[in-house]
Design a protein that fits this description.
- The protein is α/β, with parallel strands linked by helices and about 140 residues long.
- The chain contains 4 helices and 5 strands; from the N terminus they run E-E-H-E-H-E-H-E-H.
- The chain has helices at about 25-35, 60-80, 95-105, 120-130, and strands at about 1-10, 15-20, 45-55, 85-90, 115.
- A 5-stranded mixed β-sheet has the order 1-2-3-4-5, sandwiched between helices.
- The termini are far apart.
């Protein structure tokens, strides 16, 4: 899986674009790149974009749980602020089903607000809303 990161200080967020097979080592590499960016701040929100080339065909419950465990630790170590949010952008129905499964796995025991969107524009609008407001 390849990735790109676009830290947007003016938008108070980072956009992470993912392509290729969805595997934990690439998620780890993307998060390492985020934390190493000079523009990254721990109170920024995150938008993960599952692009048209993102391959989820090998995703299993166990691999999702491994990503969940990694992200729980990464969030605890690299994110702060009163209301951290993560938006997941999925370009097609299959990817949204996998993202919905992710939300079901994390349940209410997740310190970061999570929402799923079909576009970066929708995700950005949600991130700009005041804390505690629901989906745009």
């Amino acid at each position: 899986m390849t990735f790109s990161i676009d830290v947007r200080p003016a938008g108070h967020c980072v956009v992470v674009r993912l392509d290729g097979p969805f595997v934990l080592p690439r998620i780890e590499a993307a998060c390492t790149a985020i934390a190493a960016s000079a523009d990254w701040r721990p109170d920024f929100d995150v938008i993960f974009v599952s692009g048209p080339g993102t391959d989820l065909n090998e995703v299993t419950l166990d691999s999702l749980k491994d990503v969940q465990d990694f992200m729980r630790g990464w969030n605890a170590g690299h994110r702060s602020g009163p209301d951290p949010r993560t938006a997941i952008v999925c370009s097609d129905d299959f990817k949204r089903v996998i993202a919905d499964l992710w939300l079901a796995l994390v349940g209410d025991d997740w310190p970061i607000q999570l929402r799923i969107f079909t576009s970066v524009k929708q995700a950005t609008s949600w991130l700009q809303r005041p804390a505690g407001t629901d989906q745009a």
